[in-house]
Known about the structure:
Layout (H helix, E strand, L loop, with lengths): L1 H9 L3 H11 L4 H10 L5 H4 L6 H13 L5 H9 L5 H11 L2 H15 L9 H13 L4 H10 L12 H4 L5 H12 L20 H8 L5 E5 L6 E5 L5 E3 L10 E3 L20 E3 L8 E2 L3 H9 L6 H15 L19 H13 L4 H9 L2 H4 L22 E2 L2 H12 L1 H8 L7 H11 L4 H7 L13 H9 L1 H6 L7 H6 L3 H13 L5 H13 L4 H13 L2 H4 E2 L1
Antiparallel strand pairs: 1-2, 3-4, 5-6, 7-8
Helix pairs in contact: 3-16, 5-7, 6-26, 8-9, 10-14, 12-13, 15-16, 15-17, 19-22, 26-27, 26-28
Amino acid sequence: MALELNRVRCGVSLLTVCIFVGAVQGQPLQEKIDSAIASKVPNYSTRASADSTDLEFLRRVTLDLHGTIPTAQEAREFQADKSPNKRAAQVDKLLADVWHPAYYAGVLDLTWMERRPTKHVTNDEWKQFLLQSMLENKPYDQLVREILTADGNDPKTRAASRFYLDRDAEPHLLTRDISRLFLGSNWQCAQCHDHPRVEDYKQDLYYGLFAFFNRTSVFTDAKTKKAVLAEKADGEASFQSVFDPKKTTKTSLPKMGARKELGEPKLEKGKEYDVAPAKEVRGVPKYSRRAKLAGELANGDFTPFPRNAANRLFNHMMGRGIVHPLDLDHSDNPPSHPELLDLLTKELVKMKFNQKEILGTLAKSKTYSRSSQAPKGSGEFKAEEFLVAAVRPMSAEQFAYALMQATGLTDAEKQAQGNKGESRALRSSLRAKIAPMAQPAMQAFASQPGEAATYDSRVEQALFLANNGYLQGLLSPQPGSLTFRLAALAPEQVADELYLSVLTRFPTEEEKKEVSQFLKARISDRAGAVRDLVWAMVTSVEFRFIS
């Protein structure tokens, strides 16, 4: 009976479980991932799409690991490479390059800060902290612990305190954001009562997390004028359910999820503080509830933490989480592939929270390499079956950097460095130099501050693509720009260079014909014709999406 109940809960047959377990013994992790995906769909091998083309894969993986598109030269070299393991080698190359930590630091910034305006810690300090953490390949659990323990008082760790300080240490906001961003469960609706539709999200869970920092506040030092965190030694996390007719008041000590409440030391009255709070004096209690949070949350023993991290890494590469939406992990929204999520969770802990290793493994899987085109006769399929690669919009950051690469601005800046090779220092310098140049496009396509990144279509985006001066500048025939390069080519060479530079693919015969006819029709205005061709390509739907 217990076995049968487990079968029903997991949503998979015992036969499927046995097939999956038998298939993964001794396999590399990427093959285990593929086996887990295939085990959920009957006739998966015949229904799933074929491998993507080499250039489709190159564009996709470069966007996912570097946040931009490959150059036309890189596309040609990858296409010409006949090595059987060239895709895996390309993944390793991208992860070893300094552009990966620079890009993924931005991914974490967007995930955790959601474009919030700077209040107390500068954006540059915060981003440099994340970048250095990624350059060091800092374990994910260590990074989160640093964020959750920083109080802004120590200059060495001040940058990490932005997560708290730029949310003004508001306890309800922190409860919502920590639960959804680090645990994959948005408990916001349990603030006033048990969640009305999600059985797992209870009010006592909410206030157990809330109790870690309901005594914390922002304190501005009168001398330095800097905001830091202060904390009281008293104050309870009290709550009532709005649905309770008796209005019974309950209190909660700090606790993490369904775990027991943490005990608190009994301190002699009058000796509760290392520094007692007073006018213009920051309170520092002997026992800090907030200081206990990082150790309780950010470790491999508390499964929701690595589970959420593994799910978000999978989502980054595959365009969809195993639990989806990412912040609604509960029993009524089970993972599409429970065994796979368990596997990735355990492997992430075993790898000591090495994000880069998981990203690389996912990129080397057949699931990731599949075409986004469904095979003929495959019938209907669901996104959560991963039968085809997900077609997904670029983030604002990806679009901005891809736009600079496609139009030649990145190459022009690279040329300005001189012919000095591709050292890590030069690559890092190039990324830092063009970062400010990405801002206009990023601002036009970015989600609203304080909101999770989503794809939308707004008037300002249309105006940016239609007549923004920044974009028009990218299209001007400056040395190194794409329009400059195309203007110097013979008409029959234009289409190949155009399509490789912008869309990372060769044009079809029909597209070559269209480009040729367009150029012939405007032979007296070759420069203008080339400019319009590039403009049409970078404003196309195909350019905006990852497939």
